[in-house]
Every structure is written in structure tokens, then in C-alpha cells.
Design goal:
Elements (H helix, E strand, L loop, with lengths): L25 E3 L10 E8 L2 E6 L4 E4 L3 E4 L8 E8 L2 E6 L4 E4 L4 E5 L4 E10 L2 E8 L8 E7 L4 E6 L4 E9 L2 E7 L5 E6 L17 E8 L2 E6 L5 E3 L4 E2 L12 E8 L2 E6 L4 E4 L4 E3 L8 E8 L2 E6 L3 E5 L4 E2 L1
Antiparallel strand pairs: 1-5, 2-3, 3-4, 4-5, 6-7, 7-8, 8-9, 10-11, 11-12, 12-13, 14-15, 15-16, 17-18, 18-19, 19-20, 21-22, 22-23, 23-24, 25-26, 26-27, 27-28
């Protein structure tokens, strides 16, 4: 299995990179960012504070009016972003790169050779998790890779039950979920508080390889396989919901939402799907570019990002470019 580069929005060789020290670029709200750099993750603390990261160390910020390029000091591909406040934001990527935003500037906090951090989730300023792949962690193969921030340092470990971990989400500091692949190419869900007294449990899911996770609560969680139907956890069992097979056959890369009756999934060919509490349905986006991630501030304010610098915003009635 080729896990490192199976994303349809893989880096374009020789693409023009946005990042450059001492320079900035702004574009009007809701427009497509003018670059060929791929955007791979999006997160915000509110409608006037939204971040997106991507290839070549690209980080852009939306302040409620315009998108602005921010200097990062790295050219590593960035694939994850999350924070606990406007002054506490983490970004992760290739070479085990972890960057931190303190409200004024980005700085490098961690790097690890032969690893790739695909996602990050921040619970509080003293509790954040990043997951990905340790390419040298297994016997002749890769293992899932986990890094935890305890407020003073990052601590890392391999997740030996997995070959890769693609996404992380938490309903709170004592309920952390990670999803990815087993060495046998089956899907994997790890759940726990991340302590020796309450280790991560790998027994709660059997199904295909997973790429995304998001929940409205500890008993209302969605996971998105790379292929096949999205699955829902109700606190005791995994099931599919009407429309979960995604009728276009799209591969899902990102999933997010705001409530039990407001969830989004995005993927190949610019496809977006919405869950209203009863069923999943297709929502036109006006683009065929692969969409890598989605983040929602409210039911009428949702952002999706993807390849070629694609930035879309949902205003409650339609996706806007």
C-alpha cells in the first residue's frame, strides 16, 4: 500500500510557492487563492480568524476580510492545523515538522527525520496531539506515529497497532480519537485518554482504511474511509446512515461540522456532502479540484480547501469561490 502519496491533491513538482520571508499577499474574502500551492487543512477560532496550510510551507490567514500569506520559515509540506485560541495554533507536516503560532509569529517547535505528521488537534494550551507516519518504525514498513504536547514539551511514540495514522479528534482532554490503517490495510480507530492508566483502545472499529474523523460529542462521531461509506458511532456501535455511501463514488479526505444535524464531508472532484441529521446529500461546489479539508464555524459559515489553492466558503445557501 502506498500511504505516503495516495492523496489526489499531491504536491505538484515545481509549483509556485506562496511562502517568502518579508512578503505578503491578500485576496478578497471567499475568492480562490491565486497560487498553484495545494491547501491541505483548515481551522479557525472564529469567523474572523481562519487558517489554512499546504504545500511548500504555505500558511495563509483570514481576518474576516482578506486572506494574507504568513511567513513560516519552512518549505516542508504542511498537512494539519488546529489551535485552542487565536494565540495558540499548531501546524504539522513533513519531516515531523511542528510549527507554533503565539499570536504574533510562527516558530518551529519540533522536527523528526523519517516521519510525516498528517494532522493535529489542540484541546488546550497544555494538551495537543499530532499523528502521522513513522517510515522507519516498523519491521520493513511504517507505523503510526503519535506526538503529544503536555504544555512544556512534545513527547513521541509509535502506535504499533497501525501502519499509519491520518487524523485525530477529541471530544475533550480525556477522550482522544485517532484513525488510520492497520498493517493489514484495514481501518483502525484508537481511543483513550492517552495516559498509562487509560491507554488507547484499538478494538472498537472493524472496516476499511480511514482518513478522517470528527464528532459532535463522544457518542456522536463520524469517520471517513478512503473508500466506501462513512461510518457513525452512537456510543456503542458503528453504522451507516442514509446517503452515507456518497452516491458519486467520491473518495473522502476531510470531515467536519458543528452539531449532530450539521456535518460536512469533502473529497475528490470537488465533491461536498452534507448531513442534516437524517441523511447525507450532495451539495454542488462549482469546482472539480480535489478538496482536502473542511472546517465549520457555524451552519452558515463553513470553509473547504483543496488543490491548486482552492478556497471555498459556504454561506448557508451555496458554496462561494
Amino acid at each position: 500500500m502506498q500511504v505516503k502519496r495516495d492523496l489526489a491533491f499531491a504536491v505538484v513538482a515545481g509549483a509556485a510557492l506562496l511562502v517568502s520571508c518579508g512578503s505578503s499577499t491578500t485576496v478578497p474574502a471567499g475568492s480562490t487563492f491565486p497560487t498553484t500551492a495545494d491547501l491541505r487543512a483548515v481551522w479557525g477560532s472564529g469567523p474572523g480568524d481562519v487558517w489554512s496550510v499546504g504545500s511548500g510551507g504555505t500558511i495563509v490567514h483570514f481576518d474576516g476580510r482578506t486572506w494574507t500569506l504568513r511567513a513560516t520559515g519552512t518549505t516542508e509540506n504542511l498537512t494539519g492545523i488546529s489551535g485552542s485560541s487565536p494565540a495558540d495554533v499548531w501546524a504539522t507536516g513533513d519531516a515531523g515538522t511542528i510549527l507554533h503560532w503565539n499570536g504574533k509569529s510562527w516558530s518551529k517547535a519540533w522536527t523528526t527525520p523519517d516521519t510525516e505528521l498528517l494532522a493535529v488537534w489542540a484541546n488546550t494550551p497544555t494538551d495537543a496531539w499530532a499523528v502521522g507516519i513513522d517510515w522507519a518504525g516498523g519491521l520493513g514498513g511504517s507505523t503510526g506515529y503519535v506526538v503529544h504536547w503536555n504544555g512544556s514539551s512534545w513527547q513521541d511514540a509509535d502506535a504499533l497497532a497501525s501502519s499509519s495514522l491520518w487524523s485525530v479528534w477529541a471530544s475533550g482532554p480525556d477522550d482522544v480519537w485517532m484513525v488510520g490503517d492497520r498493517p493489514q490495510d484495514d481501518g483502525l480507530v484508537l481511543r483513550g485518554a492517552g495516559t498509562s492508566a487509560n491507554p488507547f483502545d484499538a478494538s472498537i472499529y472493524t472496516g476499511p482504511e480511514l482518513r478522517g474523523i470528527w464528532g459532535a460529542s463522544a457518542t456522536d462521531v463520524w469517520v471517513s474511509p478512503y473508500q466506501r461509506a462513512v461510518q457513525h458511532w452512537d456510543g456503542s456501535t458503528w453504522t451507516t446512515r442514509p446517503g452515507s455511501s456518497m452516491p458519486t463514488g467520491a473518495q473522502i479526505f476531510g470531515i467536519g461540522g458543528t452539531a449532530a444535524n450539521d456535518a460536512w464531508a469533502v473529497g475528490t472532484d470537488g465533491t461536498a456532502f452534507h448531513y442534516d441529521g437524517d441523511a447525507w446529500s450532495t451539495v454542488p461546489t462549482g469546482t472539480t479540484n480535489p478538496l482536502a479539508a473542511v472546517w465549520a464555524d457555524s451552519p452558515d459559515d463553513v470553509w473547504a480547501v483543496g488543490s491548486g489553492g482552492t478556497v471555498l466558503r459556504w454561506d448557508g445557501s451555496a458554496w462561494r469561490h
